[in-house]
Amino acid sequence: MVKKTDLYPSAIEAIGNTPLVNLARITRKMDGRILAKLEYFSPGFSKKDRIARQIIADAEAAGELAAGQTVVELTSGNTGTGLAIVCGIKGYPFVAVMSKGNSVERARMMSALGAEVVLVDQLPASVPGQVSGGDLELVEHETQKIVKERGAFRADQFQLKSNFRAHYLNTGPEIIRQTGGQINVFCDFAGTGGSFAGCAAAFKEHNPAIRCFVVEPEGAAILSGESVTYPNHRIQGGGYAMSLLPLLNPAHVDGYLQVSDGQAAEMARRLAREEGIFAGFSSGANVAAAIGLLQTSFKGQTAVVLICDSGLKYLSTDLWE
Ligand SMILES: Cc1ncc(COP(=O)(O)O)c(C=O)c1O
User: Fold this and answer.
1) Which pLDDT score is estimated for 208?
2) Which of 17, 80, 196, 311 is a Cys-bridge partner for 278, taking CB atoms 3.0 to 4.6 Å apart?
3) Going edge to edge, which strands form the sheet with 33-38?
4) What pLDDT is stored for residue 116 in this prediction?
């Protein structure tokens, strides 16, 4: 295992092995613990650096990516940032295709890291900062067009097993090691579902009694079978109201939880003020969901969550007023 104190040949090796922190202040009046994995410690300040590294490594190993070939992917910003870092270091030109609804910091950061950023207009009824499944379809269409035009490798985060593998091989086992395996419950806000799927598979392999819950936005909880009444929620990076997530294994889903925009934002603010953890909406959603678990069926137990990315990625939004 590479340790953070080692000398690395590149920033790629600095991806992962992130700290796990006990949210002892937020939970002080509760029975139970929430352990939070600070994924903004990776070079691109998000958990998606892990999948970028894995997608490129797996494609190289399978002979699917030729030296100097262009890589293209649809992104809400975090996967694109990871790919910009990995592709920049390895010499693959990278094109990030993103909805204009995602925060502007993300596009600027990807450009700074050497990516070509293609921004796609939102649907006429959509609102900046609120990317819907419909907006994402437009981005998907543009991505497919660019892949064809440039003969590019599609780093398809919704389809490629590498997304799952990044978390199955690394994030999950790191948490098991850091907790000594003492975990009762895991909950995770799903975008592609790769983080949930990989961690849940690792946890259940370690101990089938560990319960795993998918977190969805209130009003866009399609995976739990509800109809979508609020597709333009604020929790960036997921909750796209896609009824099928190919990476998700239903056998590993013990239940579904819902979090509102307000709960996610309020918890992100509490994380900053009370725990010194500067994160985004989806991290707030994960912690809010975990609190709900500790207050009901999992009293006195240990929950683990991912702190998906940095609050710096939301400076242009009203998350921080
Ligand atoms: C900030 C943020 N949170 C949550 C997610 C969802 O993660 P996953 O795609 O592994 O389900 C993403 C994915 O892009 C993200 O960027």
Assistant:
1) 98
2) 311
3) 20-22, 33-38, 302-307, 185-189, 211-217, 255-259
4) 97
Residue of 207, 193, 203, 214 lying closest to 168 (CA atoms) = 203
Kindly state if the Cβ of 195 falls inside 6 Å of ligand 1.
yes
146-162 burial code (b ≥16 CB/10 A, e <16): bbeeeebbbbbbbebbb
Q: How far is CA 51 from CA 3, 100, 164, 245, 301, in A?
A: 19, 23, 8, 16, 30
The sign of the torsion formed by the CA atoms of 167, 170, 175, 176 equals positive
Q: If you average pLDDT over residues 47-62, what whole number do you get? A: 98
Which of 37, 46, 47, 48 is an active site residue?
Answer: 48
Six-digit token pair at 239? 């909750």
Looking at the predicted structure, is the pLDDT value of residue 2 above 80? no
pTM over 0.90: yes
Whether 46 is catalytic: no
Query: Would residue 282 show up in a list of annotated catalytic residues for this protein?
Result: yes
